[in-house]
Amino acid sequence: MNLSWIREYKPQWLAEDLRIAIFATLILIPQALAYAALAGLPPYFGLYASMLPLVVYALFGSSPVLSVGPVAIISLMTASALGPLALDSSQYIQAAALLTLISGVILLLFAALRLGALANLLSQPVISGFISGAAVLIIISQLQALLGVQASNKNALMMLYEIISKLSLLQPLTAGLGLGSLLILLLGKLYVADLLRHLGMQAKTALLISRSLPMLLVIISGALVFGFQWQNTVAVIGKVPQGLPTISFTGDIVKIAPQLLLPALFIALIGFVQSIAIARVAATKQRQTVNPNKELMGLGSANLSSALVGGIPVFGSFARTAITMEGGSNSPVANFITAIIVAFILLWGSSLLTYLPISVLAATIIMAVFNLIDTATLRKTWQHNRSDALALIVTFIAVLVADIEIGIITGMGLSLFSVIWRASYPYIAILGRIPGTTHYRNVLHYNTENQSDTLLLRIDENLFFGNAQVIEQRIQQEWREKQPLKHLVLVMSSVSHIDSTALDMLEKLNADISEQGGFLHLAELKNIIRTPLKDSKLMHDLSGKIFLTTADADEYLHS
Amino acid sequence: MNLSWIREYKPQWLAEDLRIAIFATLILIPQALAYAALAGLPPYFGLYASMLPLVVYALFGSSPVLSVGPVAIISLMTASALGPLALDSSQYIQAAALLTLISGVILLLFAALRLGALANLLSQPVISGFISGAAVLIIISQLQALLGVQASNKNALMMLYEIISKLSLLQPLTAGLGLGSLLILLLGKLYVADLLRHLGMQAKTALLISRSLPMLLVIISGALVFGFQWQNTVAVIGKVPQGLPTISFTGDIVKIAPQLLLPALFIALIGFVQSIAIARVAATKQRQTVNPNKELMGLGSANLSSALVGGIPVFGSFARTAITMEGGSNSPVANFITAIIVAFILLWGSSLLTYLPISVLAATIIMAVFNLIDTATLRKTWQHNRSDALALIVTFIAVLVADIEIGIITGMGLSLFSVIWRASYPYIAILGRIPGTTHYRNVLHYNTENQSDTLLLRIDENLFFGNAQVIEQRIQQEWREKQPLKHLVLVMSSVSHIDSTALDMLEKLNADISEQGGFLHLAELKNIIRTPLKDSKLMHDLSGKIFLTTADADEYLHS
After folding, report:
1. B63-113 pLDDT, tens per residue?
2. pTM for this predicted structure
3. Contact across the interface for B383 and A535, Cβ inside 8 Å
4. Per-window interface: A 103-142 vs B, CB < 8 A
5. Measured between alpha carbons, how far is B35 from B46 in angstroms, rounded to an integer?
């Protein structure tokens, strides 16, 4: 448990932490409501997931400032996991809690198995493509609530087409509130902070106030609905039960647990990857490092605590963490205060939420996730690495035209496959000596000189099952083409691993070369491969010698 | 099309090819019958799959001697794909042909996409574990036919348990024929070839005759059944329709095509991996190389031709290819003659097959696949590479306790994951100069000397998303611990690729180091990474320099 911050905490920090907590709450509440709605639950369930997890994460997680709660993409994944199960609303609530519970258990299991390196299973371009795709998906799904149009299609592109073709059926008041809010949020984002600064306000405070605009909008629109009694025309949150729900799982919900396993795994994986990325940004600013296994612990416990009160899956939110970070604090106190404020609202202020219109929440979601659409990474990757850029685009398209789970599988598949594929076709350089030196370089790129009876080959990749065959064929081909030859020297400076398939290949190559009267030598063996090779058949039968450097080999063989 | 052998073929080879073809047929017929039964089809369907594919493969494939037809493991996979679909026997026959058709199309698609490197997707130990597991699975499944005991369990271990518990219910005559055949085959394998050699026969002929034992047994047992009219007590092949079937697909079978896609993909993949391994053994003996894409073409066409006559999926058979190879021939003529003999049997000799007892076929299967259980690879791998050995064992167990498809997925997952995992934790060596030389080596393994303001780090792995984070943390840690430092030199001799995630990391590292007043230098950059790096932000902003060698860097920085 992380309690070291208690000793370091100074009482005079409390005022600043309180100020941060209030602003954080103003951002948190509309997001929590909106993301619960996005997940397919009554909006106030977002508040349930916004108290305990904040506290529990701070105690077990790796980053003191990470703000854990409902996040957009995970809520979308929740909806996509539970949507097709055809549940009634009470079952849906239970199933969401069960999904959260299973995600939490998976995260704790990963932590126990010390699988923190899972965070590195997805490449940056694939993550970027995935998040951009999910953001577009969210925006399309929110158009229904924003405009008051019902769509029956589940596929994003079909849904977009349906919404456009039904535009004439939109509910004017709902659409007015929604589009009005969107416009205000857009103008606010562009101008409010500048305006306030011009009016003489401190830049930091101006920024915080401009970020509270969604909350302000939610309150004003709620007051409008209440004042004009629009609640029968416009969809609103409705009656919020006081206090916390007690969650229990009925038998028919427990039975669907196996169907939730895979979605929960994806939620755990994507949530973890996103959260640790945010925690790393925070840690870099404080010149600290993040411990991935501890991060898994913190996120796992946070999700268990969310499931306990019927909440949705919770992970690190970038927008809310930014607020805590900008305050300059390095303790979780601001997050604790935020959790307490949310609890107060739930206990005594829940009737205030009743009249909040859903379309305004949709506007705040759309505005929030619009920032997630990441074209900068695409542009940059396209310039420097076409295959990475292609992986980004394919993942983006897979999320949009298939669905979010297919998108993840595609992205992971592309990430892993590209690594294997690349390693399967290693570069093999023929080396020669740069005249007058003891340096050996690629004959294609440098003026070199060579002994005619010796072939020097440098293999630029670890040797494993994926490339053993290809490497053998390349070596055999060079050996045949450059005849007459007496010595083959494999320069192993780039080889850090040889698996058993590749070891078999080298043994076979050695036998083959010596059958033809040649000698196979190895040079520049690293110690990490020297040790496992020691007792192998290859070392025992090697027709040639082992040399420390390529120069040593060349010298010894020709002196 | 491969027709070059026609020009090279000498008429005097024909006698030898005829001799080989006769022996090959004697081995082929019991295997073809038995493997079709294993696939869940009437045994004579194995003969349908044994003519055209032999010829078609020879025309389009990459190995002139590969004997293509029914093979044990693929037949097991066919049964495992079609078994759960609850089809009647006429539907089952159509579905098998459809599965063969889809496998063929997938193989041709791979060929068109030039995906021959798919053959390297599985590591040697994983293939060994998979084949051993499948062999045990086949033996267990054949115990029913061997003993005349019916089992209802589909899971191999449960089935074994059920068969043992029902041993008292065995059909004595069936079991007698089966176990008797097994005993004779075992003794034959151990002693017959030696015996014949002792009697003065040529070693090669003795071996071929000892291998015809299964056919001899099948004929004798058929004669016994016919003579004593046992066909109502003992399960026999039964009436074989004369000639070839014409296959057509009814609508209800076409509808299950999507369900056959994944099994067909696995059959294509495993069949290809096995066939190319056999083709490579053959090619090595002839000092030739195998073209994987051409191999895909040949196998794909062979499967299409098998589907055409209602046959099962066909791939290279090791046992039958060995016969052709031992004959010393390098033309497909022996295979052509074999196909013609089989056609004659089907046209005019099919009534000879009617009385062959199934239990004797089961005995020949068990004997044939027993050789596939490969403990040698396990022993060898266990000695040199524990993680490879573990992958072998896990794959073996997955095939046995789950099923054959789970086994493949597990094996492929383990193969790929182990590569990524290993690359995710690269070795990073601190280098120092071996005194009096310009050689730089790992300070842990050599006596070296260092400049106190310079840190030389060699990264022993390509830089990619999977290890960028880990590498950055290691570098930052060394940089902090070894302070005060002025220069950080990354020695890139082992780096053949930098992806965009890793490039981002290096840019960040460069900014970080120079913010602290340090300089980041790169040494021993290979040309293959120099080119893509050229226009990058890293090269533009690099605080230090790029050096050809580590020695150059050390000299320049301290002169």
Report:
1. 888 899 999 999 999 999 998 888 898 899 999 999 999 999 999 999 998
2. 0.72
3. yes
4. 117, 119-125
5. 7
